[in-house]
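Suppose a colleague, Dr. K., hands you the sequence of a protein chain of 415 amino acids and asks what its three-dimensional shape might be. Before reaching for any lab equipment, you can write down a predicted structure in token form. Begin with the sequence itself:
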Amino acid sequence: MTTSLDRTSVGLPPLLSAPRRLLKHPRLMHYNRLAALVIAVNVSWAWASWPLTDRGLGHAALANLALAVLIRQQYVVNLLFRLATSAPVHWPLRLRWTLGKVYHFGGLHMGGALAGSVWFLVLTLSTTNPPRLVVGWTLIALLAVIVGTALPPFRSRHHDHFEKIHRFGGWTALALFWTHTLLSGPGPLPLLVLALVTFSVALPWLRLRKVDVRTERPSRHVALARFDFGETPFAGSSTAISRSPLTEWHSFANVPAPGESGFRLTISRAGDWTGAFIDDLPAKVWTKGITTAGVANIEVLFRKVVYVATGSGIGPCLPHLLAAEVPSRLVWATRDPRATYGDALVDEILAVQPHAVIRDTSRDGKPDMVALACAVYRDFGAEAVICISNKKLTWQVVHGLERRGIPAYGAIWDS
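The predicted structure, expressed as tokens, is then:
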């Protein structure tokens, strides 16, 4: 089913010049630039403060690890998005292009965690107090495990284990930091920072609750979960749900409908947990924290946008299409959309996107998504492309377009 003209035959625009194209390389994406910035600030501080005292080392370790924790706090994330997307659309496109990369804030998390661990290692190497040495080396070993399992080779293959290590290891590390700090006889500032970090970690769990869920299963591939427990989240946010709150959490894009209370989640079969959810639809699930802004919230920085989605990637796009805050055009490639997602959902999409390009991959095969996105981008006169798909295709589309001077955005799988 294709509901608009498919112009993939139109040639792609030329690549940018070599220097500009180099800046669009995945290894130089803003996530890595922010991590490098944190490291550079730490090196500059060490140079200016040399020789370093134990007090200075302790403060540096605590400041960086506090940054690593607080930058992930849901209220902080929402604030970052609010600030970045407050720029008016008449600002230069190149500036808005950069502001749209706000979701790369995880680079600050990575840089802070690495720098904080190094400073704490240096502090422990200079320590002679036996109780502090025991706590220090225990904490160093724990930090090494947390950092090591957060690296892509482990995280991508064993994501559930990564989450458990990050959660329980993080809690244990925080307790050890309190112990080490109290043994060091600190002033009021370190205790205040530790209290703030502890409150930040605890806050999402203070909002833990078990809520009712009504589910529809249009096919064995998809479940549509409906919630109405007194909250209607903003379009473009996400909610984490769980059936076992201490073991694993999964975040999905909220799909509120204009003028209606509650929201929906589109859950597709993409692993053991989602498969079990679809096969055994629960009556209740756990939620925690607050709804958090996602990548597509950057749409308001542009006059027109193109949404590119494959399969269940339609879920994060749908709330923005329904809200219609920014003129948009949808490109959706999926297998047999009506049989997989149901007539009601497809008709709902077409009601707000009558000119959408919907490709049935079971009938027409998989299209060249870079070429298709580029064709619709030019046909619609858009300023940016937002891609919601699997990791490989998202990066293929985002970097394929950016290397040709087209602002493009998509998840970076850093959580």
